[in-house]
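Handout, section B. The chain below has 174 residues.
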Amino acid sequence: ADNTFELYEDDGITMDYQKGVYAKTRICYRWGSKPELVIHRPAGDETVMVKDRDYEVVFRNITPCSSMCVTEDGKEIPFEVSYEEDCLCVKVTGINGTVQILFGEDVEIAETDYKQEIFDLLHHAQWGNMEKMSIYRLMEVTLEKEEFVSGLMAMDMEMDQSLLGAVLESVFRN
């Protein structure tokens, strides 16, 4: 699913972030016939920005893709790509601009065990343990995807809409 994130950086030592001494890097992901990930040039106080950045981006549950392109500020750059356990890893080094990772039309979502994927997702989510346990129990007793989703929607709990969207995407993508 499409999404946008912000990477926040400060010196990690002082309280200078309260005075505006920090930087933010916007990261945008768009899924479509030709998916792309854009890591924008950092904005903010240059004293906390890393020069010549290295990025290693891991795309989970994607099949190997033979037609990829990586650019920095619109110019093609060299990159390393590896594939292991349904994860496509792209590594670029010495970055000081905006990076764009473009996939060709041959990229596809890999088949996965949706219950294991939801377990992994919830394991890392910052959400209450009781709520997580309720969903784990529901996964244990439901056999069909539709039954799981119906049970999930019937639960009387506050669930972050982004987390709910990620769980539903895990169920219905396969």
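Note. The chain has a mean pLDDT of 88. Compare this with the example in section A.
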